[in-house]
Amino acid sequence: MFKRVLVANRGEIAVRIISALREMGIESVAVYSHADRDSLHTTLADYAFCLDGNRVQETYANIEKIINIAKITNSDAIHPGYGFLSENPKFAEAVEKSGITFIGPRSDVIRLMGYKIEARKLMASLGVPLVKGTNTAIHNYEEAVEIAEEIGYPVLVKAAAGGGGMGMRIASDADDLKQVFEAVKNTALSLYADDSVFLEKYLSKPRHIEVQIIGDNYGNFIHLGERECSIQRRHMKIIEETPSIAISPQVREEMYKTAVLIAKSVGYNSVGTVEFIYENGEYYFLEMNTRIQVEHTITEMVTSVDIVKEQISIAAGKELSLKQKDIKFNGHAIECRIYAENPAKSFIPSPGKIINYITPGGPGIRLDSGVKTGYTVSTYYDSMLSKLIVLGKDRDEAILRMYRALSEFYVEGIHTNIPLLISILECDDFKKNNINTKYLEKHIQNIKEYCQKRKTTYLAIDNLNN
């Protein structure tokens, strides 16, 4: 087992990893920017080293600095968390070449699954269902128009590199496509240093369903069930839950088999997530995230499996400690992402000092947080503060428990999205599970009016259409 691990991240995921390392008897090394000098993860780690700077490229995305600190501290391994360098094959390869262990899949797997076009080609060869689209990069607008007319509008223009909801826009017609095509190319070049894009048919009311998988270096693979991630704002997840009560037992089992098949086909040797979109009883491959997911917490709640510890053990050369028959699912879990942003003003980030930070507790409640009272939220990084997770015996109880927990969550000094989350939980369509990835844009006006009617003690929500 490792003696010392460098955590190449910040915020709540760095805290989560450091906690797991401590429980495993492994020393942790934190890295931090100037803005994060007094952050929680630097306080909790055994050692902490400054990355000298604030901008992402000079700190948490600086491969040379991070590897040098790992060498100086005699770290056996580097855990990338999520975001930043976690799905950067160049980083994983550089770590491998340095003789330090990368806690994640091999760099060749990250490269294959991170480039969506190659991933689509692989899925096609495996017979995995795919949304109608292109399996080659599109380089000019004229080519894009020709393909879009063949697929049928509306279409999604997507960055070939990267993951998640970044670098993705909808085009409703040829005129719209011209602007969207250039915008996505520019975004892709800025975010991923690769302006390759491709097209997919846009589904009008899909659900976002993903399957958690784990593989080791000895050919063992298991899944830990699925997560419903359909509540999104601009393709970024806000609320996640497990299990999904929208899919049938038959479709669920097919998704599990497909996810494990994909993992086996690439020799996957870490924790990862296979993402699907689901509509009208059919599911389609979306992408594979070759890292720990933000929402891994709800899977841990219903399975009692510590996914981060399992990931670290596999990287250290251990076999999977579990077989598929060992995995039991109990109850229903929901996660809400708490952001420092102002829903009343177009969701602009809300930096500043947290004067008071009172968090909920009680049965079935978990909080993964990267902040504390006195912490100053900076403008340099993602505005997520923490993740609130609840477990109930069923979905109804989980919703009520989350509502109670959010109502007891108090953050003074900055704005948060807590009022928006409460409003969603109180919406009849959410309670009845009438949701899809377009839920928020459909219900935003009703949510705003409901909040104003309720006169909640939290921030008044206004101008949510922006």
Structural write-up:
This protein is α+β, with helices and mostly antiparallel strands and 466 residues long. It folds into three domains: 4-103, Rossmann fold (3-Layer(aba) Sandwich), CATH 3.40.50.20; 132-201, 2-Layer Sandwich (Dna Ligase, domain 1), CATH 3.30.1490; 207-454, 2-Layer Sandwich (D-amino Acid Aminotransferase, Chain A, domain 1), CATH 3.30.470. Helices cover 35% and strands 25% of the residues. The protein contains 15 helices and 22 strands. The strands form six sheets. It has an eight-stranded antiparallel sheet, with helices on both faces. Helix 4 (89-97) runs antiparallel to helix 5 (107-114), helix 7 (141-151) packs across helix 8 and helix 12 packs antiparallel against helix 13 (418-426). The N and C termini lie far apart (50 Å).
Task: Please give a handful of descriptors for the protein shown.
single chain, 466 residues, alpha+beta, Rossmann fold, Dna Ligase, domain 1, D-amino Acid Aminotransferase, Chain A, domain 1, 5-stranded parallel sheet, 15 helices, 22 strands
Residue runs with pLDDT of under 50 for 5 or more positions: 455-466
- Count of structural domains: 3
CATH architect. name of the largest domain:
2-Layer Sandwich
| Distance linking N and C termini | 50 Å
Could you give the count of β-strands? 22
Q: Averaged pLDDT, please?
A: 92
Beta fraction of the residues?
Answer: 15-25%
The CATH topology of the largest domain: D-amino Acid Aminotransferase, Chain A, domain 1
Q: For the record, what is the CATH homologous superfamily label of the largest domain?
A: ATP-grasp fold, B domain
- Which radius of gyration do the C-alpha atoms yield? 21 Å
Number of helices: 15
Based on helices, strands and strand pairing, what is the structural class?
alpha+beta
Outline the biggest β-sheet. Answer: 8 strands, antiparallel
Strand order of the largest sheet: 13-12-9-10-11-14-21-19
The geometry reads as globular
For the record, the CATH class of the largest domain is Alpha Beta
Helicity, as a percent range: 25-40%
